[in-house]
Write a structure and sequence with these properties.
The complex is a heterodimer.
Chain A: H1 2-8, H2 11-22, H3 36-56, H4 60-86, H5 91-94, H6 101-110, H7 112-147, H8 151-162, H9 170-176, H10 180-205, H11 209-217, H12 222-251, H13 253-256, H14 265-274, H15 278-306
Helix pairs in contact in A: 2-3, 2-4, 3-4, 3-6, 6-15, 7-10, 7-12, 7-14, 8-10, 10-12, 11-12, 12-15, 14-15
Chain B: E1 4-15, E2 18-30, E3 35-39, H1 46-54, E4 61-66, E5 69-70, E6 78-81, H2 93-104, H3 110-123, H4 139-152, E7 157-161, H5 169-184, E8 193-198, H6 201-207, E9 210-215, E10 220-226, H7 235-240, H8 242-258
Helix pairs in contact in B: 2-3, 2-4, 3-4
The chains are: A mainly alpha, B alpha/beta.
Chain lengths: 311, 270
């Protein structure tokens, strides 16, 4: 009994209760179309997940992550419902830019098929660009870092180049590359290339000298030295850059999909925002957020696996 | 012919204060199968001397030769154990050993390498720890695995740079006895030639056939001592022998005299 209470008496459940209570308040915004049913169903759905997680996930840290995230979502929903439908804070005129959650959810459901295609196309674009960047940047960084050992100069040059937003290159990319698609990929390549290169080079320069000496005494060849010693030794730092590159890629997704794309999450948001349909745009923004979270989570799992030898 | 020969060796290196002389006119020889310790306080150049034997550093003048051939770089005729980072942290202990074997015995199949690795892990008392990463092992266990790798590579020469320097006193004694037992082997096969760097006088006496003392900045040969105790050696028995105490006192006196009463860099030398 005490156990059940302990699992139930957590802030996210209180927030869910608060969310239910504010539904009782009278609506103030009459002119906005909302679908409160969707919001309610969504919240109940989340609450079911919350309860399931509370009782089924045994590891406390993992359970905390889930319950905290759900708590934050409830808090956002409360604020969102209050600000739009219940209190109409933006006023009737500006309300078009601040659609209520039910409307966004309804739009999300209507556009769900398109959203799946968007996700597929955007991920294809990002991974294509990202993988090209990483596959070039890591070996190049290893080679430059190991052979030149001129950390300072290379560091400044790559800092200089990485400070230029890849958006600047778009016109050149369109002119020089064979297709719009290639230009889009190019933006992502540039976005993720510099952090990966810079972190690989500094990773190589920071490899513990004693590890290099240890490898030298085993008389390893150049290739073995680079790929079995220097690369894994620098990997923790390489991951920092690759993580950064991934974030920047998603930030630039919208810009990349401005170039001739006809689908994709960035295109979707951009397109609807241009036409003043903020309900759809917001639905797209939230979708991007969810996708980024999932990708980051998978990326962290990969990192944990590849760096399992670190305490 | 001696296994290792060092003759009129000087080592001068550049650092941020200009150049400095690390080793001055070093000459000594190590016979095949001999266990020689280099002792001296830190900064006396003993590790530099060892790194020249490892082929990582090079003398500015003079000769460092193995089997009569000047050392031109690292080679798999020498097994090396450092105080830290002998093992690669991203490889499990058995992969570490198998990796060393791949370098020294290129004709072994992958399976043979791992089988040999497991056999040597068993020899140093680490069977069952093959799939652990170095960070999952204690410092002593890591050094056991590092020794297992050096032994598995079956080199003529072992070069050890304060391998037990970071291990607590009790474990250090065990490790020294283990090292001697492995070095002596079954008594039939040829013993490896060992050059062992330490700043621990007791360790040097217990392990060595001969002790070479280096004096400070620049490193020079101070004195050489033969260690006459019969083998196999056991700590508890040796410690009480009057000749042990005599040798120890003599070395201590020299050590402290050399450092005008105390260790030059404030480090306490046992």
């Amino acid at each position: 009994m005490k156990y059940v209470l302990k699992r139930l008496l957590i802030a996210p459940n209180a927030l869910f209760a608060a969310f239910l209570l504010i539904q009782l308040l009278p609506d103030k915004a009459y002119r906005i179309t909302d679908y409160p049913k969707y919001t309610l169903i969504f919240a109940v759905f989340l609450e079911i997940i919350l309860l399931a997680v509370s009782f089924l996930v045994k590891k406390k840290p993992l359970r905390r992550v889930f319950t905290d995230v759900l708590g934050v979502i409830f808090a956002v929903l409360i604020f969102w419902v209050l600000a739009t439908i219940k209190l109409n804070l933006p006023g009737d005129v500006k309300a078009a830019v601040f659609p209520p959650p039910g409307a966004v959810l309804a739009r999300f459901i209507i556009d769900f098929g398109q959203t799946l295609i968007n996700i597929r196309d955007s991920l294809a674009l990002i991974f294509q660009g990202y993988i090209i960047a990483v596959v070039i940047a890591i070996p190049l960084g290893l080679f430059l870092g190991w052979n030149l050992r001129v950390g300072a100069a290379a560091g400044y040059i790559s800092k200089f180049l990485s400070s230029i937003s890849p958006i600047v290159y778009i016109p050149y990319a369109i002119v020089l590359l064979p297709s719009f698609r290639a230009a889009s990929v190019f933006v992502i390549v540039v976005a993720s290339f510099w952090p990966a290169l810079a972190s690989t080079m500094s990773g190589v320069l920071n490899v513990e000298k004693r590890i290099i000496d240890s490898a030298k005494t085993l008389n390893v060849g150049k290739f073995t030295m680079l790929f079995r010693i220097v690369l894994p030794a620098a990997l923790p730092q390489i991951f920092i850059g690759c993580n950064q590159g991934l974030s920047v890629s998603f930030i630039l997704l919208t810009s990349a999909e401005m170039i001739g794309a006809r689908s994709g999450l960035g295109y979707y948001v951009n397109n609807y925002a241009n036409f003043g349909n903020y309900t759809s745009a917001l639905s797209g923004v939230i979708t991007i957020g969810v996708v980024v979270s999932v990708i980051t989570c998978l990326f962290n799992l990969l990192q944990r696996f590849l760096l399992r030898w670190k305490q | 012919m001696s296994k290792i020969e060092i003759k009129n060796l000087y080592a001068e290196y550049e650092d941020k204060n200009g150049s400095f002389l690390a080793l001055k006119d070093i000459s000594f020889q190590v016979k095949e199968g001999e266990f020689v310790s280099l002792i001296g306080s830190s900064g006396c150049g003993k590790s530099t001397l060892l790194s020249i034997l490892q082929g990582i550093n090079f003398p500015s003048s003079g000769i460092a030769a193995i089997d009569g051939n000047p050392i031109t770089g690292p080679g798999t005729n020498r097994g090396v154990v450092f105080q830290h980072y002998s093992l690669f942290p991203w490889m499990t202990t058995r992969t570490n050993i198998a990796f060393g074997l791949k370098q020294s015995h290129q004709n072994l199949s992958r399976r043979q390498r791992y089988e040999t690795a497991d056999a040597f892990l068993a020899k140093v008392g680490l069977s069952g720890f093959g799939h652990k990463y170095p960070y999952q092992l204690s410092g002593g266990m890591q050094q056991r695995a590092a020794i297992a790798r050096a032994l598995a590579m079956n080199t003529d020469i072992l070069l050890m740079d304060e391998p037990f320097g970071a291990i607590d006193a009790k474990n250090r004694t065990n490790m020294q006895e283990l090292l001697l037992a492995l070095w002596e082997g079954d008594g039939k096969s040829l013993k490896k030639t060992v050059v062992f760097v330490t700043h621990d006088i007791d360790e040097a006496i217990f392990l060595s056939d001969r002790i070479i003392m280096l004096t400070n900045s620049p490193g020079q040969i101070g004195k050489e001592y033969d260690v006459p105790f019969p083998r196999p050696r056991i700590h508890s028995a040796m410690r009480e022998a009057p000749s042990y105490i005599h040798l120890r006192n003599m070395l201590m006196a020299l050590f402290y005299d050399e450092n005008s009463g105390k260790a030059a860099d404030g480090e306490y030398v046992i």
